[in-house]
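Troubleshooting entry. The earlier prediction with fe (iii) ion gave an output that would not parse, so I re-checked the input for stray whitespace and re-submitted. Clean input:
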Amino acid sequence: MPALLVRDLAQVVSPAGVGAPLRRRALAEVRVLERGYVLCENGRIAAVGSMADLDQASLPNDLVELDGRGRAAVPGLVDCHTHACFAGDRAAEFELRSRGASYEELHAAGAGILATVRAARAAGRDGLERALERHRTWMLAHGTTTFEAKSGYGLDAETEVAQLEAVAAAGGVPTWLGAHAVPPEFEEADAYLDFALRDVLPAAARIAEAADVFLERGAFDAGQARRYLEACREAGLALRLHADQFTEAGGVPLAVELGARSVDHLEATGPAGVAALAASGVTAVLLPVAALFLDRPMPPARALVDAGASVALATDFNPGSAFCESLPVVMSLACTQLRLAPAEALTAATVNAAHVLGRGDRLGRLEPGYAADLVLLDAPDWRYLAYHLGGEDVAVVVKEGEVAWER
Ligand code: NIG
Ligand code: FE
């Protein structure tokens, strides 16, 4: 593969702090280099610098050049929480919700997540792969160069494994969401967990990197979540939780006690949860689109950051609670609804999100040694990424040193 030189960039922007995750003031520090270049070799960033210091003579012979004039470069965005491997849609449910039906009522009536379970089972392996390929392209077009995607729409051995394999085949980071809902063939959550831990976990643990659970009234309680997560940890999986989306039901203390990678949602988290997270190594993954889409309160992002918690941002892209694949939209909401600064939003959607996926040492920065994943914006200032709500400023997406998408 030839080397790639992105030259004459108006701005080269990267989180400035050292290590991951970045917290407190380090979350808000980005380095902005004017009139810069990025040199990529063998899929990694070889050098970043100012055009004035570029030594033309030392460039590799086999070189492709990309014109960066008028453009700002930021690290490829990392979406650390999606349900992108879904079939079908829930447009009819969206209309019912617009007329006042609640997400939780629909779920209790066998619609919601269970409607997508029926669609995923009917689609099978091929259908899921095709749908995910479509969704992957949508994400790429918004600057996402690394995505995580969960299972949880199969809830039987065959479809859960098909989902995880499809995610891995598409280059995503697979998470086993074996405890998402209780499928119709089981009456009790405990009986379903008996089955999932006995018949699905061994295969899931060979493909997935992490396990996730939906800890919520109407889904799984704290005792059931503990049992599921402890078994998954035993099988070698990192741990994540969906918690405090509608009610505070013990997800934060459980995540802290088990040393989970992340606890995600947190729309209902109060001051004790904020303090517990700030004192822990668990990253709070904030999903402002899900709060907006379901007309719920926003998570206490400012309090989490000010208290010193590790925070990341993600889309939660799924057909029910967040039909939105755009991290720039998430970053916009982070600035207008969560009261984060654009720099905090950028760090939270790049290196901190990479940390949640166990890749904070190699993804999410424009620095030598990091993956050559970058987004070029047709904008004079990188902050357009969050500022231009719903804007189409992503012009070119480079993944591992090659142009992967162009507007
Ligand atoms: O993170 N809350 C649970 N799970 C997903 C939604 C999945 C769905 O509605 O299909 C979420 O919001
Ligand atoms: Fe989710």
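This one parsed fine. The mean pLDDT is 97.
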